[in-house]
Amino acid sequence: MDLTVINLAIRQQGLMVPKGNPKGVTGVESLTRDDLIFINRQRGAGTRILLDHHLKAEGISPRDIRGYDNEEFTHMAVAVNVLTGAADCGMGIMAAARALNLDFVPLARERYDLAIPTRYMDDPRIRILLGLIRSDTVKDRIRDLGGYGTELTGKEMLPGTGLE
């Protein structure tokens, strides 16, 4: 199927930690410390896959992380675990950390795109949707969430287009 890919936003993923980062978490290498309890996303979640990628790149075994097998199904649930002290840190998006006044250690940026069958690009409903996505009002609201970038919002993503 011929698709046109339009960027919606770029979001920050990383480690959510209590305000002030009292345990001094600096990245995935911190997760192996004995004094740290981690809260993870569920198996199959994109956030979990991203974490596992970072662990593999650093040569870290999930068995060396206290709490790796403790799972939550949403970014906000992970953030609540950190806020309440049930965990010292957890993987999630900056917007969830910001919503609960947590600190955040960034690990990655990722594109969120909309894939539209190219044959519908001239449909008036798609044109209205793209007009909204490209509006300054929508871009401002996305940025206000925290952890989202709009430098590519509304732009067509051609093959090979990535994040710099």
Structure overview:
The chain is α/β, with parallel strands linked by helices and 164 residues long. The protein has a domain at 15-108: Periplasmic binding protein-like II (D-Maltodextrin-Binding Protein, domain 2, 3-Layer(aba) Sandwich), CATH 3.40.190.10. Helix content is 29%, strand content 26%. The protein has helices at residues 46-58, 75-84, 94-99, 124-133, 136-144, and strands at 3-17, 38-41, 71-72, 89-93, 103-117, 148-149. Strands 1, 2, 3, 4, 5 and 6 form a 6-stranded mixed beta sheet that branches. Strand 2 (38-41), helix 1 and strand 3 (71-72) form a beta-alpha-beta unit. The longest helix has 13 residues, at 46-58. It is elongated and about 55 Å long. It starts with a strand and ends in a 15-residue tail after the last strand. The relative contact order is 0.26.
Helices and strands in order:
Layout: E1 3-17, E2 38-41, H1 46-58, E3 71-72, H2 75-84, E4 89-93, H3 94-99, E5 103-117, H4 124-133, H5 136-144, E6 148-149
Parallel strand pairs: 2-3, 2-4
Antiparallel strand pairs: 1-4, 1-5, 1-6
In short:
This protein has helices at about 45-60, 75-85, 95-100, 125-135, 135-145, and strands spanning about 5-15, 40, 70, 90-95, 105-115, 150. Helices cover about 30% and strands about 25% of the residues.
Q: What is the CATH architecture annotation of the domain at 15-108?
A: 3-Layer(aba) Sandwich
Mean pLDDT over the full residue set: 96
Number of strands: 6
> For this structure, what is the CATH homologous superfamily of the domain at 15-108?
Periplasmic binding protein-like II
Helix content: 25-40%
- Rg (CA only): 18 Å
Instruction: Give the overall shape, derived from the CA principal axes.
Output: elongated
| Helix-strand makeup class | alpha/beta
Strand proportion, as a percent range, falls in: 25-35%
Indicate the CATH topology of the domain at 15-108: D-Maltodextrin-Binding Protein, domain 2
